[in-house]
Design brief:
The protein is built from seven helices and six strands, in the order ααααβββαααβββ. The chain is α+β, with helices and mostly antiparallel strands.
């Protein structure tokens, strides 16, 4: 009875169109499941070949070397470097042109731009040809000064000792990366100006002689006042002198040189 009751239920399923079985990809015989297990339980490998991973540079590979010089910089830095080089080149060309106009014989261009040339050349780039003259300077000339001071206590006059102003200027600029142009040339040029406009008796020759005397006097008074001569009292008079000594001949020369120091004293000047 039980077997007869199940038959109508199975027969009640309507018959439909035939369904094609799914087409499975070819299976590797080595991947078949063991006997006795259903085929659906077996793992079916994919028939598509896996894609290769993207190929990139190895992690330990060094970057390409940078080009030397300006070419190795980025674009903004290349522009800045080019502008800086152009500015330096223009400045160098302008400097050479002004120096050429200064040392060249007088011409139309140098006369027309004489003020501009002089403002650029003096005093830093002044040309002094004494080193290349037939008789270059072979003497060391030092300018010395002393002051006569009226004491603040008793009012008596006290004469100070000689001070080597040239030696003080030399010590101030020695071993200096940016030495003072004033320390190098002010006193030396003032003394050259004085000796060139005075005779052997220290008398001025024309108006330039009087002007050079006033200029040298002011320089000496300023140096003595700054260095403490005026601190002992009132400076009444000052006096200057030069100490000239010939440069000795080199050891390999047979020349005999008189290295004795000769002095040229100027009269006292009232300040």
């Amino acid at each position: 009875m039980e077997s007869n009751e199940r038959e109508p239920a199975e027969a009640a399923v309507p018959a439909g169109p035939p369904i094609d079985p799914p087409i499975d990809p070819p299976i590797d015989p080595s991947a078949h499941p063991p006997t006795g297990q259903p085929a659906a339980a077996a793992a079916v490998p994919s028939a598509r070949t896996p894609a290769d991973p993207p190929v990139g540079p190895p992690c330990d590979q060094a970057p390409p070397p940078r080009a030397p010089g300006i070419a190795g910089l980025s674009a903004p830095y290349r522009v800045v470097a080019a502008l800086a080089l152009a500015a330096v080149g223009l400045a160098a060309c302008g400097h050479l042109a002004l120096v050429f106009l200064h040392v060249a014989p007088s011409n139309t261009v140098s006369k027309q731009h004489a003020r501009t040339v002089d403002d650029w050349i003096y005093p830093e780039f002044e040309q002094n040809w004494k080193l290349f003259a037939p008789n270059p300077l072979q003497q060391n000339i030092a300018v010395q000064a002393r002051a006569e001071v009226r004491s603040a206590l008793g009012g008596e006059l006290v004469t100070g000792g000689w001070r080597d102003l040239s030696a003080e200027d030399g010590a101030a600029i020695r071993h200096g990366l940016l030495p003072s142009h004033t320390r190098q040339n002010e006193l030396r040029r003032a003394w050259d100006f004085f000796t060139g406009s005075h005779d052997e008796d220290n008398k001025p020759i024309g108006e330039r002689g009087e002007l050079s005397e006033q200029y040298l006097r002011r320089i000496a008074l300023d140096r003595l006042s700054q260095d403490g001569a005026g601190g002992r009292g009132e400076v009444v008079r000052i006096q200057l002198r030069s100490a000239t000594r010939a440069v000795p001949a080199p050891p390999w020369s047979d020349e005999k040189t008189d290295t004795q120091t000769y002095y040229r004293e100027l009269p006292w000047w009232t300040v």
